[in-house]
Amino acid sequence: MKAVTVSDRDAGVTGLSLTELPYPVVSENDVVVRVHAAGFTRGELDWPDTWTERSGRDRTPSVPGHELSGVVVELGFGTTRFTVGQRVFGLTDWARNGSLAEYAAVETRHLAPLPFDIDHTVAAALPISGLTAWQGLFEHGRLAAGQTVLIHGAAGGVGSVAVQLAREVGARVIGTGRAADRDLALGLGTHTFLDLDNEKLEDAGEVDLVFDVIGGEILERSIALVRAGGTLVTIAEPPKTQPSDGRALYFLVEPDSALLVDLAARVRAGRLKPVVGNVVPLAGAPAAFAPEKRSSGKTIVRVTEG
């Protein structure tokens, strides 16, 4: 099968290439998915699990990408949740070969059924962005109606979903990003937008929750914006300081098939619209990792047509 692989830690995105790999081995409680569309996170080449198995053993060449939508083509021993020919979407395991391939072996607990009326390209934009946004806002951030949330990267894959979910529960939403992101962020439902290149972050004032996807200086400056009893959650890096009367925490997204079902229902009902950015073929995936290729929304790799 064709797959995007990486073998050299030091090469960065230049080490990504389209190669031939054997068809995946299906394990107990796995399915093999014929991948129709896939998503990736640009920073995943820095993740330890990209390079090693859970035991610590080297697993290169490895296949990046951990979001997929496709069709089940094979069942592992003991698999009962899905059937051959069923449409599914979800996450691949962090420490196994990922989704930038024609076929992927996936644990069934990481997948959810995909309704027939959701396109694979849209579904592949949902797993990491949707789960991260929900878990950050509600499980870690405890966002409630009437509160104010500051969402960094409001036009990005995670941020755009977070804006919509926060608006739906009745929160006031302040979004940040680049000047070019303003119209999209406002269209998604932000009440206020701050261009971080030309406007002061501190103009946001105090908020109940900061949702950070950027890290670095922006993360540190955001600590001061958390009002008494408030929270900052970040997926970028562990915070170096804490609010004077609040909390700041770093979290990693957790697979949740039941939540994926809920998110898909929101998409079907028109209550949630994942923002799909660039769509590239599998052969174009290595170039799409480059920072200069970043666009609003989620970049999706179209692996299989149909």
Structure write-up:
- Pfam families: ADH_N, ADH_zinc_N.
- The chain has 7 helices and 15 strands.
- The protein has helices at 120-124, 127-140, 157-168, 182-188, 216-222, 257-268, 285-288, and strands at residues 2-5, 17-20, 30-39, 67-75, 87-91, 103-107, 111-113, 148-151, 172-177, 192-195, 207-212, 226-234, 247-250, 276-281, 298-302.
- The strands form 3 sheets. Strands 3, 4, 5, 6, 7, 14 and 15 form a 7-stranded mixed sheet that branches. Strands 10-9-8-11-12-13 form a 6-stranded parallel sheet, with helices on both faces. Strands 1-2 form a two-stranded antiparallel sheet.
- α2 (127-140) crosses α3 (157-168).
- The two termini are 18 Å apart.
